[in-house]
Structures are given as structure tokens and as C-alpha cells.
Amino acid sequence: MILFVLYIEPLLCKLNDSISGVLIYDKFIKTIAYADYINIFIRNDVEFDLLVQILRSFESFGKIKMNTSKSAYMRINKCVLGPQQIPEVNHLKILGIEFSSKISLIINSNYDRIIQSVKRMLQVHSVRNLNLWEKSWLINSFVLSKFWYLAQVFPPEKKHIAEIKCCVGQFLWKGFIFKTNREQLYLDYDQGGLRLVDPETKTKSLFIKNAIDWENNDTSEEYIIHKLKPQNLPLAVKELIVEIRKIKDMPNITTTALIYRHYISQKNIVPAVKIEYPMIRWEIVWRNLNFNFICSDDKATCFAFWNNIISNKEKLVAYNIGRIESSACDQCSRSDNNVHRLEQCPPAQIISNWTKTTILKHCEIRLQNLEDILHYEIDNSKKNENAAL
């Protein structure tokens, strides 16, 4: 790669000396090169002819030829003519981002393309038997990560965020009738969430961090924050300009992760179950549920139990779902709810009593109710208490 850079440097220098470039916020942009990508900004038809002459001269001395089948030019002004041997296109992909003549087209075409790709991926994974924990891992690692590169350059519009959240929600809650609040899922494990990444906050954090980095770099575009002309910007960018200046004035927030946590903390998200049952020490429950020796299937089951999203008969009748006439259990005729399934039903009583006896015998912990073990304050230094959990 170093040899290629040295080889192509004379061509870039000649182009920079020969063309005028385009003026973008007090700075002339002429040529931009990265790896084997070379982008040249031409102002008029005269410079088109000059470009062809320079390329032919370089071909004769360098013993290489331009691959016209992989080259293209796109009009971003009212230029009439152009180099005949280079095909004209309406959109041009540069480093994975598809550019068009209008910034609104750039944002829409790129996000629409990625969203369609994400939908196909989620459709493939939807046939797998995944629990909530595994789905959140997959969404964070393989689905939402497709947007992060583009978001650093062009933030998505609200319609794109809504579509992303919709397809992610459909995949995550497939097979569930009852759900938790979406924002609760963005919380960390020890706060009652699934550590699911909020696409709106993440894309905003990435763009803000990238804009601040651009301004702090002496060789880059210093106008990103201070010299921007809002009338020339899309709505998604306009809304972030004020936020960029605020974050820049916070010396302790220096990374994308810190920016993301800052915005998540400002949402003041509180799980609904914590408001409904304030007497329970939920911090301990969530901390205990996060131990590594508990498998993800059990964590997902406990999460559904504590957040009361298990589809028992009592809830189905209350919400008039499924045309169920009675909430009585098929085996014992008691009302079928979560507590009943855990301890009151005869099959559950056998398991519950055996578990209580085992914990009392081996760990010397006496439980009144089986679920008490989940909000029991575990002493990490005592092996018997860890074993009981």
C-alpha cells in the first residue's frame, strides 16, 4: 500500500496544481484519495479536458491505464458536457457510502438500502429458537452495527429511526403477547434492562463524536461546528448542531460510549415493575440475575417473570385475548397466574418444596417463598450463598 501511495502521489500533485476545485465552507476541495479510491472535483468542461490530458500523460509515463469500466462521473452542478470515455451515473459509491446530487437522496438511499438488508437478516434469524438475551446480543452485534459507519457521516432521519425500531421490535418480541416498555430494554442488566442499544441515541452519539474529532483535527474541516450554514443542512443535522456544541463544552465526555451513556441517563428510564412494586429491592434482584453461572435461557425466563409478561390465563382473560372464558388452572382450578405456576399448583409445589429443602439442608438458608432467593442479598465471599442462588 505504501508503494501504491508513492506511485500515485505525482498524479495527485499534478491534479491539485491544475484544477480549481469546489469551495465548501471557505475551503477548496480538489482531490480526495484513500487506498485505491481517487475522487476528483471538476468545476467546468475545460477542466474535464485538462483532466483527460493529465491522465493520458500519467498513463504514458507510468505504464498503467485507467480502468474506464470501474470509473464514473456524477454531475453535482449544471455542467453540460463531460468526458465521453467515462460513463455518467446518478449515484456513486465511495468507501461504502452511496453519493447522489442531493444530500436528501444520499441519506434516504443509504439508509433504505441498509434497512432492507437488516430486514432480510432478521427474517433469516427469526426461525431460530432464541431467547430475549440471545436476540439482544444478535441485534447489537450483527444488526444495528450495520448503521454505525454511515451514522458517523450522515445521521438518519426520524422515519429511518422509526423503521429500524419497528423491525427490531418485531424480531425481539416474536412469540410474546405482552411486552415491556421499549426504553427499559436500553438499560444495563443491573438496572433491569437487556443492554439493548438504542439506535437513535447511538447514531446521534457517533455523529457528534465524529464532528468534534473533525474540528479538533488541525488538518481537517474546522467549519463543521462553527462555520456551518444551517440553511444548507438536512433537518437531521440541524437538530444535532446545538447538541454538538453542548457536548464539546463537557470535558469529561470524550468518547462515543460516554456520550451515549450521557444521553441514556438523561432519559430517566425507570422499569414499570419498579414503580408498581416499590417495596422490592430491585437492584439486588437484577444484580443476582446477572451472575455468569446463570444461563441465558433462565435469565430470559426470570426477566419475563419479574416484568409480568408471561401469558398466563389470568392475564389473557383480563385483556380479553384468545376467547378464554375462565382463568382457572386446568389441573387445580385455581387462578392461573405467575405465583400459582411457581408454587401453588401441585406439580409446582413438589419442585418448590424440594428446592427449599435442598437450600436449607446444604446452604442453611430458609425460604418462605421460592422467589425470595432472587432478591436475597448474596455475600460473594460465602460459597454456600452463591451455590444457593
Automatic annotation (TrEMBL):
Keywords, sorted A to Z: Nucleotidyltransferase, RNA-directed DNA polymerase, Transferase
Superkingdom per UniProt: Eukaryota
Keyword Transferase annotated: yes
GO MF annotations in UniProt: RNA-directed DNA polymerase activity
Name of the protein in its database record: Putative reverse transcriptase
Organism field: Aedes aegypti (Yellowfever mosquito)
